[in-house]
């Protein structure tokens, strides 16, 4: 798997760029790209958020130069949503849309996204990447309990 990325490390509950002697650390694997894809905020449309000043969005998308592609997901729209099936369905849709580029760019063959609630009604997102016929990579996240908690570690 030839996917090299900048390493994001968790420190005090937040992810940030990792440095080693003043240089950015790199990593082989999908973890950093997945974190950016899922947790950067994709800008909401007018039908989703009426007030343009509240549509948010990751600042990096303004500099990409693409009109039909944004890094990030719309999971942020669900942070105050009820813990119900509609929210689960939306979280799956938002997460699936956010990781679709991995397939479009041919890094993976398929992405399976599922969601559930734990006993405290925190949202759980599970992402499975299928590569070829025998490689399965899994990652899980628990959302909105202090900050994002990784539930699994095998995407690298």
Describe the structure.
By secondary structure, this protein is an alpha+beta fold. The protein has a single domain (4-150), classed as Nuclear Transport Factor 2, Chain: A, CATH 3.10.450. The chain contains 3 helices and 10 strands; from the N terminus they run ββββββαααββββ. The strands form 4 sheets. A 4-stranded antiparallel beta sheet has the order 7-8-9-10, with helices on one face. A two-stranded antiparallel sheet has the order 1-6. The chain has a two-stranded antiparallel ribbon with strand order 2-3. The longest helix has 20 residues, at 85-104. The radius of gyration is 16 Å and the shape is globular. The relative contact order is 0.15. The mean pLDDT is 86.
Q: How is this fold's topology laid out?
A:
Elements: E1 4-6, E2 8-11, E3 14-17, E4 19-20, E5 23-24, E6 26-28, H1 31-39, H2 61-64, H3 85-104, E7 110-117, E8 123-131, E9 135-145, E10 147-150
Antiparallel strand pairs: 1-6, 2-3, 4-5, 7-8, 8-9, 9-10
In brief:
It is built from 3 helices and 10 strands, in the order E-E-E-E-E-E-H-H-H-E-E-E-E. Strand 7 and strand 8 (123-131) form a beta hairpin. The chain has helices spanning 31-39, 61-64, 85-104; strands at residues 4-6, 8-11, 14-17, 19-20, 23-24, 26-28, 110-117, 123-131, 135-145, 147-150.
């Amino acid at each position: 798997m030839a996917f090299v990325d900048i390493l994001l490390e968790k420190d005090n509950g937040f992810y940030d760029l990792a440095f080693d002697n003043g240089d950015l650390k790199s990593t082989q694997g999908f973890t950093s790209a997945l974190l950016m894809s899922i947790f950067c905020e994709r800008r909401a449309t007018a039908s989703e958020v009426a007030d343009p000043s509240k549509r948010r969005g990751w600042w990096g998308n303004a500099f990409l130069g693409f009109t039909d592609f944004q890094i990030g997901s719309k999971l942020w729209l669900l942070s105050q949503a009820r813990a119900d099936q509609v929210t689960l369905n939306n979280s799956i849709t938002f997460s699936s849309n956010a990781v679709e580029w991995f397939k479009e760019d041919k890094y993976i063959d398929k992405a399976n996204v599922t969601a559930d609630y734990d006993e405290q009604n925190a949202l759980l997102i599970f992402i499975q990447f299928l590569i070829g016929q025998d490689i399965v990579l899994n990652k899980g996240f628990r959302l909105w309990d202090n900050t994002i908690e990784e539930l699994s570690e095998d995407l690298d």
